[in-house]
Amino acid sequence: MLERIVYSGQLPASFFDLAAPRYAQSSFAPEEEADQVRQLLRMEAGQHTVIVYTDHQRLRLVGIFPQAGSAAYFGFWETTNDAELNKAAFAMLEADAATLHKQTLAGPLHFNTFHRYRLRLGPAPSWQQFDREPVNPAYYPELLKQLGFQPSITFQSRLLRADTVPRVYLEKNPALEMLARIPFDFIPVTPESWVLLADDIARLIHEIFNANPAYKAVPRAQFDLLYNPVYAARLCPHSSVLFRDQRSGRLAAISLCHPNYQELDLPAGVAPEFARDYPRLPRRTLLAKTVGVHPDFRQQGLMDLLAAYAMQKFQTYYEEVIFCLMRADNYSLRFTDGLPVETAHYALFERRVG
């Protein structure tokens, strides 16, 4: 029997037990840290009505209702392939959305785009899973479509294999040659530089991405929950970089990359560290994760130059690269256009209420 539980500081005891059975036979599973989820809910509870719908065994679903605006969201969704069960749960969610005068319902989205959101579409790609990649059983998107949801924003990840890398170097050689002549300082992103520049990095990331669909600014404490010196320790110091404008001293662009540590199967609660874990990697795949240019410095070719910076030492440290979770209409996709790639697809779903 489905329960409707208004969140008031505590999650039901079954909440964190429901995901594991969905992935017991899979080579991938979502990354979910219980303490981090609890902190996130406590941080957001003051600005949202949060309601959990669950039968404690086969399904959990969280309705996220911002105090302002006409949009509602769902997240933390894990379920068996049971259309009737999901129909009942989403009907309860939609009834609450209507009562709270919401007009649209979108997800999965865990409050904002800094946290987990989107579904992966289709069969698992050859890499199975990378760090913080949206992963889910293949039937999840189909269940949503049966409930009237459609993709509203789509995304791609593209794997560039080792045998294509020489061609990339040939095509991108002009950008490599230009690096030495541009009026920017290059600051490798390390735990030490993160501590020194944390305020500037947080501000730069907001200014780069705040116009993206579904983006919502977060308090600094919530940003630091995910992006901090522990996070910086996983980054590749040879490809992760800040471009600083020499004239104004402002940060102009950022590229955050790190190896795919998934095959190491690190114990729960152990964060990867480049210095410790890179030498143990069975396959050296670079993940190009967060890459962007401040609006004031766009139209100067800096996206290609960020890639060129990483290419300087790429062949020394990596075999292949995945360009991760790019919006399907994003300019950055052009870097791999025309090259043979393996592509994974993702979507955020939406429907009208009523």
UniProtKB/TrEMBL annotation:
* InterPro entries for the chain: Acyl_CoA_acyltransferase (IPR016181)
Q: What is the lineage of its organism?
A: Bacteria, Pseudomonadati, Bacteroidota, Cytophagia, Cytophagales
- What protein name applies here? GNAT family N-acetyltransferase
- Species source reads Hymenobacter saemangeumensis
Protein origin, superkingdom: Bacteria
